[in-house]
Amino acid sequence: MSILETPLTHERRPARFVAFALTAVLVLGGLTTRLFAMQLAGSPVSAPVPAAVLPAVEAGRRVMTEPVPSTRGLIYDRTKGLLVENVPTFTVSVRPADLPLTQRPQVVGRLAGLLDISATTITETLDGATGSRFDPVPIAHDVPQQTARLISEDSLTLPGVEVAVEARRDYLDGSLFTQLIGWTGSIDAAGYASLKSQGYLPDDRIGKAGVESVYESTLRGTYGVREVEKDGTGRTLRVLSTTTAPQAGNSLVLTIDAKEQRLAQQALDWGLKKAGLKRGAIVVMNPQTGEILAMVSQPTYDANLFSRGISTADFQKLLADKDLPLINHAIGDIQPPGSTFKLVTGSGVLADKKLGLTETVLSKPYVQLGSSRFYEWNQRGWGPLDIKSGFAHSSDTFFYQLAQRLGIDRLAYWAGQYGFGQKTGIDLPGEAAGLIPTDQWKLDTFGQAIFPGEVLQAGIGQGYDLATPLQLLNAYAALANGGTLYQPQVVREIVSPDGTVVRPFTPKVIRKIAAPSWVFTTMREAARRVVTSRHTYNLADLPIVVAGKTGTAEFGLRDKNGVLPYHNWFAGFIPKGAWKKDNPTGDVSKPDSELAFAVFIYNSGTLGNTATEVAKYYLQLHYGITKDYRLPQLLKHTNFYAGGR
Amino acid sequence: MGVLRVERDAPTGIAARVGGVAWRDFDLQLFVYAVLLATLGLTMAYSNTAVQLGGEALQGGTTFVRGLIWAMVALVAFAAAAAFDYTWLKAFSWPIYLVNLALLVASLALGSSDAASARWVSIFGLQFQFSEIAKILMIVVLARYLADREQRLDSLSAIVGACLIVIPPWVLVLLQPDLGTSLVFIAVLAGMLFMAGASLRWLGALAVATFAALPLIWTYVLHDYQKERLTSFLDPAKDPLGAGFQLLTAQKAVSSGGLLGAGLTNGAQNQSNLLPVQATDFVFAILAEELGFIGCVVVFLLFAALLWRILTIAWRSRDPFGLMMGAGVASMILFQIAVNVGMVLGLMPITGIPLPFITHGGASLVSIAIGLGILQSIAMRQHRAEW
Questions:
Q1: Contacts of B194 (CB under 8 A, 6+ apart)
Q2: A120 to chain B: which residues are within 8 Å by CB?
Q3: CB within 8 Å of B156: residues ≥ 6 apart
Q4: Quick check: is A420 in a domain?
Q5: Is there a single domain that holds both residue A246 and residue A272?
Q6: Which single residue of B209, B225, B332, B354 could bond B364 by disulfide (Cβ 3.0 to 4.6 Å)?
Q7: A231 at the B interface (CB within 8 A)?
Q8: Which domain range does residue A185 map to?
Q9: From start to end of A579-643, where are the E strands?
Q10: What is the CATH number of the domain that holds A580?
Q11: Do the Cβ atoms of A23 and B334 come within 8 Å?
């Protein structure tokens, strides 16, 4: 046996071997030359470092500039009671450039255990970050202090992980002001892209609802810049200097009175609970200025849920709720206003001189129009009525005939004068414009002219008419002050951090309604007669001079008994001196009211008008009347019409 | 006279019993250079770990202890690959290719639903990077393909075929996303085609086409942060406290090394913990700081000797597969040295390619050990017993 080489089965190419070997020699030789130059010859390694940062680099320190967040402005109610606080919280973030890829699995795993977040979520957050690798990516907000301390003391085994103290908004009354104040949350990618140029950071927080969002630029202030020294793991060793000091944001003083807000909510919650309902709104305003004193929308939710970072499950629950808690129903819900709208029809027909002040119109069981009959709500009629008694009885056939006299376009004109069909311009997000039909609108939308029957419906706030509770309130506020339509406002003053008023309150007039003042006096007296005639019998015995109008507005589809579901409305006002210990001196003929209100109850289905009961209870609480005038038996459910319409 | 395989009971000696191999042909030099390089790597791991954790460096879970465990695994992998008759690899190359693709797809799927970034997969608590193993598997498959077409490599079709084989795993690696490893794939492909004797004209044309495509890739494929990393080496002083910081610190560490270096664990940049990824991609900077110019030259000489042994084995191989394996492993090691050390010395962009043996990464070491094991197997199987 001998050992031989196996035969060569391919062609050898010495030239290629030599070329490869030469390449290797060149590479290693080149690297050695470079090393020689750097280590022994002391030649400069790269372009010179700018003189400004040279000391830092030379000293082996890692100096970075970082933004210093400003203190966000606070929010007060009109009595200067604090509604929102900034509380310090700990945020854990990761700076990807400082986290070696080889250690990432271990670091992510440890963080997941410490923070009680799944490793997948952390990895996805890191991979989903769009900014530079030198920008910290927030992993968890509102970390308990003990965990934060554990993480910051363990920076050796958690390279690239940073713990920062940041301010979180704490909404002191939880859900009471949510729809007004809103909340702040983490800026999203789209928001960051558009706000980057204004100094926003990828991990910034931003107002996302309510005045927090509308007044974002006022509240935010200006971020500062400072220089800090860091080690390789991203841990801040010390602050070197503050280049630009941050400027705190300005604070807001709301027009809202926290006490009135609380009473309004108490009244609304009582009415909804007794009637077994969830959805409604109450708004209270000073008709002389347009200042909103209280605005409650139910259902609501705790704003702190969002400022602390809401869980997906909680958010899904809010989204899925059929009573739409995320919507401010006082300004974002558009519904038929029903009989409350008769204010517009009545004012219009008087101002246009289509009806004399004492002229009577016959209220009948129904109005015949072609083959259709438009019935009185009690199906009997009230006989001859003038404007005040027609309004007091809320006679449908009376107002059908007034609407016929006005025609659809004049009706729309007067609705527009009162602010219907247009946003009020309140300084809150999510306001709806509502709808008032005109002939042209019907043509544009449905391609045909308005039907005569639709004119009748429009005259009593049904058909196409849609309005928000705030629009209705604003119309009755204009009635109460003698014809001036103010723009409602929820922020009274803007105050600088040192307490100086930067922007004082000024009422904003939308328009003077183009009707003579006697029209408003007449309609105010008519609104008072609604109560004194015992049409709205549940207010009649209240020792407060209150004027207003109920509404029972049909909507949606008929149930199996052929009955339409309906909302309850009440809009009204009280003159000055409306209550003095059972001896009220208020006089509705004067335009001196300082308190107007509107209540909306969605799909009430109750025997009596729930909205009126809520308004009554609110007034009772407002004046601190100890005797209880509430009639909870009226809030039972029924499937037939009762109470005022 | 016939060439036969040795019968099981014919030769004597322990070595001969394992597949009838001439263990006297075991290339001891190849083995020794590799062990020396790996030892240097472990020494640097110890230096890093000791600086960070002091006396706790020898406790479980530290970079150093994990490195020791991986070195043992690599040794076993090397021995197994050397004992295995490489001629069987040729038969298995297509199954290996499919396994390779499956591993990459699995690491994409597993990785994204598990703790880490897609390129890491956890096995028995040790993190494993499949793309490192994919490099070696890719070399095996390409070696088989090119060996089969050894006489036809002046045609374009064989070159295009080789490219087509590389593209699927290359895309999977790029998706992870692992830009560095994907570049190694290209270097290995180029090196193997060149050594296989592929037409220089076609290779040149391909190279020109690739360079022409670079602006398109720059504009449409790369993320901003990748561009930032790629360009910061050109002028690290432009952003000395941000993107250029790693480079400036690395260069400072290298410069301060001088002739003899500061000595292990004495490096100022090592101690200051200023290099964010000193334990991995920038470990050569600490080596240069602590072992000096002499230490670096020793490392280079060891690499040169290793490459020389690999090329020798390739040259001596009696069949084209052995030649191709040698070419592939040598290309891989040379490219990684050039890019990693070049990066530390400010000559190359930051890409995250490990320095063979020195960078502390288990998969990288094991994959090189397998590659060298196969070469060892080739070295030992060029003689046949004859009666």
A1: A16, A19, A20, B203, B327
A2: 113-115
A3: B199, B202
A4: yes
A5: no
A6: B354
A7: yes
A8: 63-254
A9: 595-601
A10: 3.40.710.10
A11: yes
Q: Are residues A110 and A169 in the same domain?
A: yes
Which residues in A lie closer than 8 A to residue B320 (C-beta atoms)?
9-10
User: Is residue A553 a contact partner of residue A566, using CB atoms and an 8 Å limit?
Assistant: yes
Asked if A232's CB is within 8 angstroms of B293's CB, the reply is no
From chain B, the residues in CB contact with A49 under 8 A are: 237, 240, 248
Distance separating alpha carbons of residues A613 and A631, to the nearest angstrom: 7
How many domains, in total, are found in chain A? Answer: 2
Asked if A134 lies within 8 A of B243 by C-beta distance, the reply is yes
CATH of the domain at A231: 3.90.1310.10
Range with the largest mean pLDDT of A147-151, A470-474, A543-547, B250-254? A470-474
Tokens linked to A406: 């006005």
Backbone angles phi, psi at A132, to 5 degrees: -65, 155
CB contact under 8 A, A104 and B120: yes
- Domain ranges for chain B, please list them: 30-380
Q: Is the confidence metric ipTM above 0.90 for this complex?
A: no
Strand partners, B2: none
E strand or H helix that includes residue A411: helix A408-417
3-state SS assignment for residue A224? strand
Distance CA A423, CA A466 (A): 12
Confidence of residue A54 (pLDDT cuts 50, 70, 90): low
**Does the pLDDT value for residue A480 go beyond 50?**
yes
What type of residue is A128? G
pLDDT of res. A376: 87
Stretch 258-317 of chain B: residues touching chain A, C-beta under 8 Å: 258-259, 268-269, 272-281, 288, 292-293, 296-297, 300, 303-304, 307-308, 311, 314-315
CB-nearest to B273 from A20, A31, A231 is A231
Residue-wise pLDDT tens digits, A100-120: 776 788 888 888 888 888 888
